[in-house]
Amino acid sequence: MRVAFLLLLILHAVVHLFWFAHAFGWVEQEYFNKVIPPMVGFSWFLAAFFLLASAILLGKGRLNWFHPALIGVLISQMWIFSAWEATKLGSLVNLIILIGVFIGYSKSRFEGHFQEDVQATFENLLLSGKRLKEKHLKSLPNVVQHYIRRSGAVGQPKVENFYLEFDGEMRRQGEAWFRFSSRQYNFIPRPKRLFFMKARVKGISTQGYHSYQPPSAKMTVKALSIYPVVKADSPEMLQTETVTFLNDLCLFAPGALIDERIQWETLDEFRVKAIFTYQQIQISAVLFFNTEGDLVDFHSEDRYDIGQMKFLPFSTPVKEYRVFEGIRLPSYGEATWHYPDGPFVYGKFKLKTVRYNQTEMTGEDS
Question: Would you state the pLDDT for residue 103?
């Protein structure tokens, strides 16, 4: 759909260039003998310019692509009326582009909420620059100490925020898998998790924004960034997203597990229980390690499934460890609900990018 719309913008611009050339006598139209004044011809050129600029921005994935498209359509339509019989078909094309402009504006506005939240956090951010040392691990269970050392975090700056990008697949019960890409920012001293996802569900462009900013947590998913498919901001969401926040720390910021808000209980040689408390929320999870000391699963009873409208056991088995930014992390994981009739994998995540201790927005957000 995006490629087809991109081609439509380009083709529409080419048609306008054709009429521009006709106005100056560079191209002859046998079936249209009306003289087009040079000023009108130049307006056709301007319309083509803005339409091509829009196509370029859309091709680069820029959120503001619709601004020049709107200008181009308005100029185009104004002069279509001056040569209606020969150019009236252009009105239909302009209408299609206007619909695309409305959708583009909606996407920009929805994604803009995510970017504004991230930007506002960075504006008030100060990094300590302190490094993680061996002495900081002493109070942790042995298996957690080994996991942090094995990750390579000791000697590195303490993790105070991190940025992640994923590709993957998701699904609902009884429905097919759909592919998605996501990016997120996690901030640790004052917990925040801002997660934005783009997908195509049943052929329809869909976007989702998870905002964890205690004391509030919200999840909104919109088709075409217009129609809300999912909207959740109940009190259970705060607890649910706190579990997700702890999950991210365990999997993607091992050095952050020295956090004093986490209390530990050793269950056996390969299992520990992490209890995370922040403000009025307390959640827990059991971490499973293998014989090499890698974290291989995270299991919590404190996450709320909005589809089932109840708390259900949740786990994220992980594997395929790789080095990102000097830290050894799992590059593949699955998100699983454990229903009474058995486990259901609803998400598959492939880690693409990790950046630690950012001072500004990164990637396509900058």
Answer: 82
